[in-house]
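Re: the request from the purification team.
They wanted to know what the chain is likely to look like in 3D before they choose a buffer screen. I agreed to run a prediction and write the result into the notebook, where they can find it.
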Amino acid sequence: MRKIYFILCLIFCVTWSCNPAAKDTSKKKTKLQANVDTVNSFRIDSFWVTPKRLMKYGAIQESGADTLDLVMCGDYMFSPFGVIDIKSDLKTSKLFKFIITDTTAADGGGNSLKIQKLKFKSSKLILLFPDPGDNSDRSSHIVKGEIYDKDVQFINGVMIGMKIKDFYRKFFEHFPIELMNDYKVIVFDSCVEDLKHVYTFNNGELMSVKFYGNYVIKVDY
C-alpha cells in the first residue's frame, strides 16, 4: 500500500514540474516581487503599493470596504491648484475662472478673518491668506471646498471625469490591477495639518473632490 502511495506521489510531482502553466505562474510571481521597491512601498492585504516619491506619502491610514485612506506629506496636499502666495495671484492661477468674493468670518476664538469665496459653475472653494506679519510657512490655506466640474484644473492633471486607473497613475509608481476597482473613495490626509482631500468615484470615473481644512471658521459657501 505504501509503495502504491509513493508511486502516485511521484507521478503527481513529475506532472506538476512539467506543467508549463505552473512554471510560468511561479516565474511571474517572482518577477513581480523582484520589481517592487519594498523600501518605499506599503502593503494592502497581500499586495505591494508604491507611491510616487514626489507625493511623500507617510503610510496607509486605513483600508475599508470601498475606501482607501492614505497619509500624504507632499506639496500637492496643500497646493493642489499650485502655490498662490497672495490674493492677487488668483487671477493668474489655475483658479482664474472662479468668481472671487471677499468677506470676513469668525474663527473658533471669535477673531475676524479675511477670507475669499470662489465659485465656478457647481464648484466652490473658500481660501484663507495669512496676514503678512504671521510668518506663515504656507501661502493660501484651503478652508473647505467642493469640485464637481471637469474644467477646473489641478496642477498634476487631475480632473473630474478622469478614469480611476489614470488617477492611480498620477500618484503611484505601482498600484496592483487587482485592487484598482476595489475603492470608490480615496482619501488623502495631511501628515502635519488637519487637511483632507476626498476623491469620490462612480463607475470608475472621478465625480467629485472635496476639501476639509483645519480652520474652525463659521462661514457658508
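For the purification team: The radius of gyration is 24 Å.
Please add any questions underneath this entry.
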